[in-house]
């Protein structure tokens, strides 16, 4: 039969199976803003890794004779009032931003997922206590809790990372707890319990793999928020302690000199804004790609409405 089918030009192979990852990538590529955002995010991460190695100067190196120089071939981003090369400051800021943003998101993710799984699987008094803690965290803005933690822990890299990451766990916990509640009485989980599987095994084997997509989207939306909190701390004088550079420190220091030396603000603020938007585009693309039931992402839907492109 196979020979006859081959002779007749009929394929005997079944339909090609497409993996979920391939389908998600196809959906992601359709969102051009998400693709552009991914390119910028990758460049941001690479700059955070190699930035200090390619920076023309160290972040603390200053030359008063070169103070307040406008952009030129020697100083592409100009210099500040102390003679710091702004290009070097930006490159060093990439590293600090990558470490704090991704580190803070990792802290929030670890605490929130652990507590959310625990509350969703255990239920009862454990669920009630965890959710009351979540309500308490949501009762106060994360920014004010971060301010308190920075004042308590200090203004170095690790304390600020923890100050931004610790208050952010509540959102992850509520998300994971809700997803687990919807699956803990499913057939797979009940079968695993019938065979004597432990709670930890059920969480690792059956629950975490099924909530990974939603967690990835939440992390992608959380990273730009952490970057914004980091910059906001600098604007009130509680960011990284100088001479450690950060986008928030550069923007705060340029505020009083923007009329006379606009490059001090335009370069760091413009780059920082592009980074934030790129992360949002990536998160929106991931939401469309990993959760097709949600339909069009928030940013694309807003853009269509804004420009009047909605189908009539």
Can you give a write-up of this model?
With 312 residues, this protein is mostly helical. The protein has one domain: MetI-like fold (Orthogonal Bundle), CATH 1.10.3720. The N terminus and C terminus are likely disordered. The N and C termini lie far apart (53 Å). It contains 13 helices and no strands. 70% of the residues lie in helices and 0% in strands.
Quick overview of this protein structure:
The protein is mainly alpha-helical and 312 residues long. 70% of the residues lie in helices and 0% in strands. Helix 2 crosses helix 12 and helix 3 (32-54) packs across helix 12.
Q: Counting H and I runs of at least 4 residues, what is the number of helices?
A: 13
Mean pLDDT: 84
| CATH level-3 fold name | MetI-like fold
Q: Any idea what the CATH superfamily is called?
A: MetI-like
Can you give the helix content as a percent range? 55-70%
Described by strand count, sense and barrel closure, the largest sheet is: none
What's the alpha carbon Rg, rounded to whole Å? Answer: 25 Å
Q: What is the number of domains?
A: 1
Name given to the CATH architecture: Orthogonal Bundle
Spatial gap, N to C terminus: 53 Å
What is the H-and-E element order? HHHHHHHHHHHHH
Task: Summarize the SSE layout with pairings.
Layout: H1 2-7, H2 20-29, H3 32-54, H4 86-122, H5 124-139, H6 142-153, H7 157-165, H8 169-183, H9 187-194, H10 199-235, H11 247-254, H12 263-290, H13 298-306
Question: Main attributes?
Answer:
single chain; 312 residues; mainly alpha; MetI-like fold; 13 helices; 70% helix; 0% strand; elongated; disordered N terminus; disordered C terminus
């Amino acid at each position: 039969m196979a020979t006859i089918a081959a002779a007749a030009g009929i394929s005997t192979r079944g339909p090609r199976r497409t993996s979920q990852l391939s389908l998600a990538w196809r959906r992601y590529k359709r969102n051009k803003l998400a693709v552009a955002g991914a390119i910028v995010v990758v460049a941001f991460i690479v700059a955070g890794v190699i930035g200090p190695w390619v920076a023309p100067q160290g972040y603390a190196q200053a030359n008063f004779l070169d103070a307040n120089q406008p952009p030129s071939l020697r100083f592409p981003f100009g210099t500040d009032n102390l003679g710091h090369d702004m290009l070097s400051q930006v490159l060093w800021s990439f590293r600090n931003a990558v470490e704090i943003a991704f580190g803070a998101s990792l802290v929030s993710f670890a605490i929130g997922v652990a507590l959310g799984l625990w509350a969703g699987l255990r239920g009862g008094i454990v669920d009630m206590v965890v959710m009351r803690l979540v309500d308490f965290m949501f009762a106060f803005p994360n920014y004010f809790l971060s301010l308190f933690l920075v004042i308590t822990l200090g203004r170095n890299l690790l304390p600020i990372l923890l100050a931004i990451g610790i208050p952010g766990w509540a959102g992850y916990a509520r998300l994971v707890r809700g997803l687990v509640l919807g699956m803990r009485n499913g057939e797979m989980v009940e079968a695993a319990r019938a065979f004597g599987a432990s709670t930890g095994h059920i969480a690792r084997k059956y629950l975490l793999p099924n909530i990974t997509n939603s967690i990835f989207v939440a992390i992608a939306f959380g990273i730009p928020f952490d970057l914004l909190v980091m910059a906001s701390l600098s604007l009130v004088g509680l960011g990284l302690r100088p001479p450690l550079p950060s986008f928030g420190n550069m923007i705060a220091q340029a505020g009083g000199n923007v009329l006379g030396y606009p490059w001090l603000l335009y370069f760091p603020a413009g780059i920082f804004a592009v980074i934030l938007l790129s992360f949002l585009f990536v998160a929106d693309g991931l939401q469309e790609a990993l959760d097709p039931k949600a339909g069009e992402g928030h940013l694309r839907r807003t853009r269509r409405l804004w420009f009047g492109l909605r189908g009539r």
